[in-house]
Amino acid sequence: MFAAALIPFSHRQHASRKVECVSCHPNAGGGSRMGTIGAQGCANCHRTAGLPATPALQRIDESARRGRAIRWERVHELPRWVWFSHGRHRKTTCATCHGQVAQRDLAEEEVTINMQFCRDCHLANNARAVCGTCHNEKK
Ligand code: HEC
Ligand code: HEC
Ligand code: HEC
Ligand code: HEC
Ligand code: HEC
Which among 46, 77, 89, 104 is most buried, taking Cβ atoms within 10 Å? Predict the structure, then answer.
């Protein structure tokens, strides 16, 4: 579950307005971390869309003005000694690992991401599955 203090963010609400994953997670095709846009990026779209200044949107604008990052609670977080890269999993849909995010108001851990989940898929797809594939010094 995640909820930044006082900002009730909903994936479902944005998906219903056809805002795509990549608009907020800009690294969808690229490097190891997916990344999430900052308050300025959020505020720009809300302004362009001409949304009314609700309390939640005012808080986002305020963070943007002050150049402050919004702090979100993490849903999935691997231990530091596991190496994972979104870029290496471009061909897999987000839903395979994250569930039906677009239909949720609150993101939750719908798919349990543990070693077995990772290894089973690697073995089924002839991807490398020796220990060092995911446990190494790269991270
Ligand atoms: C590409 C456009 C776009 C981007 C980028 C975007 N939003 Fe939105 N956001 C919208 C639209 C459109 C709505 C209104 C949805 C509706 O009609 O209910 C909305 C509504 C919201 C609301 C509900 C406001 C209220 O009080 O009803 C919150 C909170 C919100 N956005 C947070 C964010 C945050 C945080 C980010 C950045 C991580 C973000 N949005 C990025 C388009 C965007
Ligand atoms: C309007 C902006 C916006 C859109 C569009 C959006 N997200 Fe998000 N997403 C966020 C924000 C804000 C967070 C919380 C910040 C974070 O955890 O990095 C988040 C968090 C997540 C998380 C939890 C990350 C974690 O482990 O903590 C997942 C998974 C996710 N998004 C997947 C998706 C998928 C899949 C889509 C497309 C179906 C999508 N998002 C579309 C803004 C957005
Ligand atoms: C093969 C499984 C897998 C797929 C496919 C996947 N993710 Fe993730 N995602 C993860 C794991 C594992 C983490 C936690 C990574 C960590 O803690 O180092 C994560 C973390 C995240 C985060 C928070 C940390 C970050 O990297 O910014 C976001 C946001 C996210 N994913 C969004 C997405 C979106 C959007 C898609 C589809 C474009 C997607 N993910 C596809 C497994 C996956
Ligand atoms: C849905 C199937 C699937 C899941 C789930 C999955 N992977 Fe993968 N992974 C693959 C495939 C297929 C490749 C090979 C991609 C390629 O060669 O382009 C790969 C590649 C990788 C690589 C690069 C391997 C190399 O040869 O350099 C790493 C590291 C990795 N995965 C780690 C993980 C971890 C950690 C998890 C769990 C958090 C995970 N994967 C979950 C299918 C999956
Ligand atoms: C495809 C990726 C992948 C491969 C291959 C892999 N692991 Fe893991 N391993 C993980 C992930 C992801 C976690 C973290 C699980 C969690 O946080 O729940 C983990 C956790 C662990 C742990 C901590 C205890 C546990 O079960 O959570 C040990 C010990 C471990 N791995 C050893 C190994 C050994 C030994 C091998 C080789 C036989 C191996 N791993 C191969 C992904 C992998």
Answer: 46
Longest Cα pair distance anywhere in the chain, in angstroms?
53
Following DSSP, what letter does each residue of 5-34 receive, concatenated?
TTB---HHHHHHTT--HHHHSTTTTSSS--
- Residue-wise pLDDT for 84-98, tens only, equals 999 999 999 999 999
Cα dihedral 115/116/119/123 (nearest 10): 170
Residues with CB under 6 A from ligand 3: 21, 25, 28, 33-36, 76-78, 84, 86, 89, 92, 94, 96-98, 113
pTM above 0.70, yes or no: yes
Ligand 1 centre to CA of 57 (Å) is 8
Q: Whose C-alpha lies nearest to ligand 1, atom 12?
A: 17
| Integer Cα distance of 3 and 72 in angstroms | 6
